[in-house]
């Protein structure tokens, strides 16, 4: 899911992919252990995930950032490390993500590491990141040609980067094994050797040991990552999860279904990471083509969840959460949705109505109740809608307040 988020980097230039590939090439050239090379690949893919903590308006500015704005952007490596540190089996990668802007001479951030203090994996990651960033278009500048990028990193040899690593970058560029903009034949061979194997062994046993409930902190983190893509939806997935769990309890669903509904609420909008910010943040209603793309997000959400073995059953819940009670809605040509999808549908609509969106202001709880009542029996399941409408607004406000950490983005 994090990879899916990171690969949608504006303007679809796949900087993360190229950094991951470059790390594999250099890592193999240096004779690093196979498991380290594999993890370097994934570290390259997710090294900038901490940018979800940065206001999208800053990241999209078409001019040089102010000192204050840049200091905010610099925090992305710390925030990214906190995300990775919470993921089972990936703790060592958290250090690499945290330190990928450290410099050989000690002038980098966030911790001012210098020379051999910087792990060799970070030395590789930071050099490849810079080399590719220079050749990647940004909002405030055009991409540099490879030779220009080489000249810049060559000048930083011994100051920003380990000289030996820079020498390898230049050597591999000359050999055409490190090719900007595409996967070299050399990488494709190494991918089969190092990358295309399980990152975590015995996945089913691992999840069985922790249990789905034990994964809640990670799932909540994913929900924040999903919602952070669009400024107006921050906290949306967690609120939908909380409200859905409450409604499931009032309906008397089993513990198993209650757990499923809570997870489905957290991840129901995972597919929105595939929708460009320019569409999600548009200040007016989307065009027909844009709306068609937005309507596809339940399919994307389902596809992401199918990749996680324990969530296969839950994928159907998120797939149908915009399907109406009377068969309308989207995606089209699907079976009638389950009670779990119907619960998510009501909770999702309630939170969407009562929060600000780019094209309209939030409406009151009272107004949300009216809209849901009008849609009862057509858009919404009657029993679920009735439970929500008969719940005091103060009760729902207290429910959200007790279960959300408002300090988190």
Structural overview:
The chain is mainly α and 409 residues long. The chain has two domains: 2-195, Hypothetical protein af1432, CATH 1.10.3210; 204-403, Hypothetical protein af1432. The chain has 23 helices and no strands. Helix 2 packs across helix 8, helix 15 (255-267) crosses helix 19 (312-319) and helix 15 packs across helix 20 (339-353). The longest helix has 16 residues, at 236-251. The model is unreliable at 9-13 (pLDDT under 50).
Structural class by SSE content:
mainly alpha
Gyration radius (Cα, Å) is 23 Å
Q: Rough shape? A: elongated
Q: Figure out the total of helices.
A: 23
Largest sheet: number of strands, sense, barrel closure: none
Order of helices and strands: HHHHHHHHHHHHHHHHHHHHHHH
Topology-level CATH name of the largest domain? Hypothetical protein af1432
Provide tags for this entry.
single chain, 409 residues, mainly alpha, Hypothetical protein af1432, 2 domains, 23 helices
Structure described in brief:
The chain has 409 residues and is mainly α. It has 23 helices and no strands. α2 runs antiparallel to α3 (34-46) and α2 (15-29) packs across α8.
